[in-house]
Design a protein that fits this description.
CATH superfamily: Glutaredoxin
Largest sheet: 6 strands, mixed
Helix content: 40-55%
Strand order of the largest sheet: 1-4-3-2-5-6
Structural class: alpha/beta
Strand content: 15-25%
CATH class: Alpha Beta
Order of helices and strands: HEEHEHEEEH
Number of helices: 4
Number of domains: 1
CATH architecture: 3-Layer(aba) Sandwich
CATH topology: Glutaredoxin
Shape: globular
Distance between the termini: 55 Å
């Protein structure tokens, strides 16, 4: 019984580490079929950095971090793409919480089926559509400053 109590947390821990360090960093966002509200597939910029953030309308972190992300986007001229798999009625309610237009996009692919289990999950891209790193949960001003540092380091190389 003691061995079982030791093995179960060990397996859960290894599964989480595999998910966090192996699966999510190599996740292919281009296979998600991300579209705008009109159903047009979007193309991400190849010549400038951007942030792709998977959200859910019920997620408290997503709601609380949206103003911070939008301020960052406007101040630094870095586009942010909020993506969800929820229906348009929920999106209208989500958008109504904010005084500005949110760049929200849809995917018909269920996020949980593709392995996006924690929200928000953000992918930070540099120029030339290169993934710099990803972050799951709690995106704050410190994280965004870290992203700017990585962009500067990347620019100087």
């Amino acid at each position: 019984m003691k061995k079982l109590l030791f093995i179960i947390p060990l397996l859960v821990g290894l599964g989480y580490l595999g998910y966090y360090y192996y699966y999510i960093p190599y996740f292919d966002n281009n296979k998600m079929g991300i579209m705008d509200i009109k159903g047009q597939r979007i193309k991400f910029p190849n010549d400038k950095p951007y942030i792709l953030c998977y959200i859910q309308t019920w997620c408290k972190d997503c709601i609380s971090e949206t103003p911070c992300l939008m301020d960052f986007s406007k101040k630094n001229e870095i586009p942010i793409y909020f993506v969800t798999d929820e229906d348009t009625i929920l999106l209208k309610k989500y958008r109504a919480r904010f005084d500005y237009e949110l760049p929200i996009y849809l995917t018909k692919t269920r996020l949980k089926e593709k392995g996006i289990l924690l929200f928000p999950t953000a992918f930070f891209y540099g120029k030339k559509n290169e993934l710099l790193y990803n972050k799951m949960e709690r995106i704050d001003s410190i994280e965004l400053a870290n992203y700017l540092r990585k962009l500067e380091i990347n620019k100087s190389q």
